[in-house]
Write a structure and sequence with these properties.
The complex is a heterodimer of chains A (182) and B (126).
Chain A (H helix, E strand, L loop, with lengths): L16 E3 L4 E4 L4 E7 L1 H11 L10 E4 L2 E7 L2 E6 L5 H5 L6 E5 L4 E7 L3 H6 L16 E6 L2 E9 L2 E7 L3 H14 L1
Antiparallel strand pairs in A: 1-2, 2-8, 3-6, 3-7, 4-5, 5-6, 8-11, 9-10, 10-11
Chain B lengths: L2 E4 L4 E4 L4 E5 L13 H8 L8 E7 L7 E7 L5 E6 L8 H6 L28
Antiparallel strand pairs in B: 1-2, 3-4, 4-5, 5-6
Classes of the chains: A alpha+beta (182), B alpha+beta (126).
Bound molecules: zinc ion.
The site of zinc ion has 7 residues of chain B, from loops.
Chain lengths: 182, 126
């Protein structure tokens, strides 16, 4: 009898967590992620299919039912689904020209929370993270140290850092050091 | 750190998010094979490299990832303005006059001491 091979999920940095001075780092559970590119003509249909309106303003995001859509560029979004949904499948019926690519396993997400969360991220990110310039819901592709990341503010003292899996060790180490500096 | 205004994000963002992409407004021939060697050399190798205002392509590579154009002063490193890709080369006469003497340094040497026509305020200058 043939032996069945079973793939088991082995997330990078699974379950890691570290506390610093007024800041907590926590590696988040795996999620479904989609890189979405589309021209304005297809945006309405894609919004309907995803159940969330694609934001059209720079540095913003929209969320509904465990699904968050982050504006990355004028025709580019990152969709994160933490409710077990499949955004790529939802877009399959949309006729308008678009590109929907599953990147679920490309990224690792780290939650950075606490009163020193912004200061910890600012150790390697040159953006203004004051609440005026980067309010709750703000999202942006930017840099952390020597790598690129996508940053989402989930609360006044809470951020979600999305980085490429192969960079996650560096990002987690960088943030851990920064948290200790606080 | 320099702050560069991205015309797509519509705000100033730190220079670390950007990458320079060479001189702007260099038209590529529709029939490159028919170009003479001299014309191809001009298109491919020769850049203006001015001392003063230059038009450049920049990319907000670690941001919205868009290419855009900028007018920058090579002496002061000051960005006079940025604009979206595909938009025409803006008229900088007014801006360059306001930017101070450095922006005028790419004039021929015999004109270097000519003051720009527009009056600049002298109050508060060091
Ligand atoms: Zn931008």
């Amino acid at each position: 009898m043939a032996k069945l091979a079973t793939a088991t999920r082995n997330p990078a940095l699974s379950g890691h967590s570290v506390g610093g001075h007024g800041v907590l780092l926590k590696v988040l559970a795996p999620a479904s992620r989609m890189s979405l590119r589309a021209r304005p003509a297809a945006v309405a249909a894609l919004s309907k299919a995803l159940g969330v309106s694609l934001p059209d303003k720079a540095k913003t995001s929209a969320a509904k039912g465990g699904r968050t859509v982050l504006w990355l560029g004028p025709d580019e979004w990152l969709v994160i689904d933490e409710a077990g949904g499949d955004p790529v499948a939802d877009c399959a019926s949309v006729k308008g020209l678009h590109s929907a690519v599953d990147v679920s396993h490309r990224n690792v997400a780290i939650a950075v929370t606490g009163p020193n969360a912004a200061a910890t991220i600012n150790a390697g990110c040159p953006q203004d993270l004051s609440l005026d310039a980067f309010p709750v819901g703000a999202a942006s592709r930017t840099v952390l140290g020597k790598v690129e990341m996508v940053l989402l503010r989930t609360g006044e003292e809470a951020f979600r850092v999305e980085c490429w899996r192969s960079f996650s060790d560096y990002v987690y180490g960088f943030l851990s050091e920064a948290a200790r500096d606080g | 750190m320099l702050l560069i205004h991205c015309p797509y994000c519509d705000e100033e963002r730190p220079e670390l998010e950007f990458r320079n992409a060479g001189e702007a407004h260099i038209a590529r021939s529709n029939n490159i094979a028919a170009e003479s060697d001299e014309d191809f050399e001009k298109f491919f190798f020769i850049r203006s490299n001015p001392k003063g205002v230059i038009f450049e392509r920049w990319r907000h590579i670690h941001g919205c990832a868009r290419f855009f154009n900028a007018a920058r002063d090579t002496i002061t490193d000051r960005f006079l303005l940025t604009y979206k890709a595909g938009e025409p080369k803006p008229d900088l006469t007014k801006l360059a006059a306001d930017a101070g003497p450095a922006a005028w340094a790419n004039r021929p040497p015999d004109q270097l001491n000519e003051k720009p026509k527009a009056k600049r305020p002298t109050k508060g200058e060091a």
